[in-house]
TrEMBL record:
Protein name, as recorded: GNAT family N-acetyltransferase
Sequence intervals crossing the membrane: none
N-acetyltransferase domain location: 1-145
Pfam family, one: Acetyltransf_9
Family annotation (PANTHER family): N-ACETYLTRANSFERASE EIS
Length: 273
């Protein structure tokens, strides 16, 4: 039976998540304390056992037809003993039907592995979201153009202004979306940093620790990205920083429209990916 989770399913949901996504206990605890909602968790149950599930997280997408609601499919997983029974197929189809009933324009997702792009194509998903990716090395001297500082909730309007300049087709972010991401990177990552010049935020970066002497800016945005990158490297005393931002070189995610909208290339990120 396919249904939305109830409050009493929480322990079973966490158990299924842990079995399918082992090895990141800190993020799991953060997710279930800050993001998880039973009313958007679609589950497949058989004989009282949760066999598979997806999170149907609500977002707004701006594309060629304006701003419309979409579903982000996240945490799609099936218990090992129930795989190869088309349970995920049925869950996705059920999510599409719910999207249409609720007036959502599309379903989006980020495949966890390269081969999954082909798997999701059979359900109508097409690659549409791309990023650029490069690595910078700490320079001996630091350019002093701008002041590095930690980002807070008060910076969200400035963050959104820079983000909205990244690409025409993009996922929109609400105040709470920004707040959740800042909280996530402050709690589990290296933090969120901005470069300020003459009182104006010119660039920002959401940064993870990425191994010994390495950092990863999962999203960097703004006109002074290189200056910001060097400031972060010097501040955190690291050798390399991987920069990921809007671009067209590396595919990141897919979209399945529920109508005849043409697929365009766009950008999203910071989707708990």
């Amino acid at each position: 039976m396919i249904r939305f989770a109830a409050q009493q399913d929480l322990n079973a949901v966490i158990d299924l998540w842990t079995r399918c996504f082992p090895g990141d206990e800190a993020f799991r605890e953060w997710f279930f304390a800050n993001i998880y909602r039973s009313d958007v968790t679609l589950v497949d149950e058989e004989d009282g056992v949760l066999c598979a599930m997806v999170q149907m997280l609500p977002y707004q997408l701006r594309d060629s037809r304006g701003v419309r609601p979409v579903t982000y499919i996240y945490g799609a997983c099936t218990a090992p003993e129930y795989r190869r029974q088309h349970r995920m197929d049925r869950l996705l189809q059920a999510s599409f039907e719910l999207d249409v009933k609720q007036g959502r324009a599309a379903s989006i997702l980020i495949p966890q592995e390269e081969w999954l792009y082909g798997f999701y194509e059979q359900f109508g998903y097409r690659t549409a979201f791309y990023v650029s990716d490069r690595i910078v090395t700490c320079a001996e001297t630091q350019n002093t153009a701008g002041t590095l500082r930690r980002i807070t909730g008060a910076d969200i309007p400035a963050l959104n202004r820079l983000y909205m300049q990244a690409q025409d087709m993009r996922l929109l972010r609400s105040q709470s979306d920004w707040e959740q991401q800042i909280a996530l990177f402050d709690a589990l990552g290296a933090g969120v940093y901005g470069l300020e010049q003459d009182g104006t935020l010119t660039a920002y970066a959401f940064v993870w620790n990425d191994g010994a002497d390495k950092l990863w800016a999962q999203e960097i945005c703004g006109v002074q990205q290189d200056e910001l990158a060097q400031a972060i490297l010097h501040q955190l005393h690291c050798r390399t920083l991987r920069l990921t931002g809007a671009g067209a070189k590396q595919k990141l995610g897919c979209i399945r429209y529920h109508d005849d909208t043409s697929v365009q290339n766009g950008y999203f990120n910071l989707l708990l990916n």
